[in-house]
Specification:
The chain is α+β, with helices and mostly antiparallel strands. It has one domain: FAS1 domain (Roll), CATH 2.30.180.10. The strands form 2 sheets. Strands 3, 4, 5, 6, 7, 8, 9 and 10 form an 8-stranded mixed sheet that branches. Strands 1-2 form a two-stranded antiparallel ribbon. Strand 8 and strand 9 form a beta hairpin. The N and C termini lie far apart (34 Å).
């Protein structure tokens, strides 16, 4: 299970931002008479809660069993995309850029429906989220661009300490799995030909 160390109210606000699907582009501010508080999602490095070690699982089972966010839409897509879920249960290693259910909410409903109706295109989009090899976010940012299973490359950056895959914020990074590494995205990323 995913757990985060919560140190003070700033860390609590960050955890809430991660769980509720905020991203830096959608940052909102609220104010009272004397001060203004800005809440924005930032990249959070995965860490186990002290005393509660999580048994490592493969990527698919890690997507099923977590407390950070839901991946129902993603898991459904992986199953429908010519059983791509079975690939991510294999030995790997794989680095998987996993869009959460909140990430799919940013996708227009009609476009999402059309994507799920076209299994070939769905597989292409989801393979763009899979990188052969086991990479931490810092490694990906240092490499700059990395070729995906789909064949095109994803661009990685680390402005201001946050990590991005193309233009998607990597909300939770470096989640270890038995067959690779998982990073949670706030948006679905797409290869050039799938747009």
């Amino acid at each position: 299970m995913f757990c985060f160390r919560v140190l003070g109210s700033a860390a609590l606000a960050l955890s809430l931002a991660v769980m509720t699907g905020f991203n830096a582009a959608d940052a909102k501010s609220s104010s009272d008479k004397s001060k203004s508080v800005k809440i924005a999602a930032k990249t959070t490095k995965y860490s186990e809660k002290e005393g509660f070690e999580r048994k490592k699982l493969d990527i698919i089972n890690t997507l099923k069993e977590n407390e950070v966010t839901r991946f129902m839409t993603l898991r459904d897509g992986l199953t429908q995309a010519f059983e791509l879920d079975k690939v991510l249960k294999g030995n790997g290693p794989f680095t998987f850029l996993a869009p959460s259910d909140d990430a799919f909410k940013h996708y227009p409903a009609d476009d999402l429906s059309q994507l799920f109706d076209n299994k070939k295109k769905l597989r292409q989009v989801l393979e763009y989220h899979i990188i052969p090899g086991n990479y931490r976010a810092a490694d990906l940012a240092q490499m700059g661009t990395v070729k995906t299973m789909e064949g095109h490359s994803v661009s990685f950056s680390n402005p201001g300490g946050d990590y991005y895959a193309d233009k998607s914020l990597m909300k939770v990074i470096d989640i270890p799995c038995t067959n690779g590494m998982l990073h949670v995205l706030d948006r679905v990323i797409q290869p050039p030909l799938a747009k």
